[in-house]
Amino acid sequence: MNPKSSYSFSNKQLTALAKLSGGATITSASLSASVSRSTVCRWLNEPGFREQLTRERSEALNVIGRKLLQVGEAAVDTLSIVLQTSDNDAVRVRAAEAGLSLVLRFAELQDISERLAAVEARLTTAYGRSG
Question: Cβ–Cβ contacts within 10 Å for residue 39, how many?
């Protein structure tokens, strides 16, 4: 059970959560958890399960984001080296640009995510929790 969650999940639910948060289909998650597809669909309609899935997906994206930031640092280093010592390192420059592009997209998505979370928090405060 996630410390932020007041729900307790069965081993089958935890298996399904792990699969779904990793991008698996409902069918694949149900097979891994040894339950029917309709059971996983029912779980997805339960607020606690859905909230935990959101948390796990968010954490997975944060891990990817941290790795992309490291790629971004290397991309900036590569650009810097190529700009200083260029003998036609076009492939390296394109790789560096691709890395920077990913970092910039991630930063934009992170900003949007933070803004959306703030809006959701305000709505929850103003209107109460919706299911």
Answer: 17
Helix 26-33, helix 37-44: angle, nearest 10: 110
Residue 106's domain comprises: 59-131
pTM over 0.85? The answer is: no
3-state secondary structure 50-81: HHHHHHHHHHHHHHHHHHHHHHHHHHHHHHHH
**Residue 50 maps to a domain:** no
| pLDDT tens profile 73-124 | 888 888 777 766 767 778 777 777 877 887 888 889 889 988 998 898 888 8
Q: At 46, list the tokens.
A: 């339960």
- Specify whether 68 is located in the same domain as 131: yes
> Any residues with CB less than 8 A from the CB of 9 and at least 6 apart, and which?
1, 17, 48, 49, 52
Residue 91 lies in a domain: yes
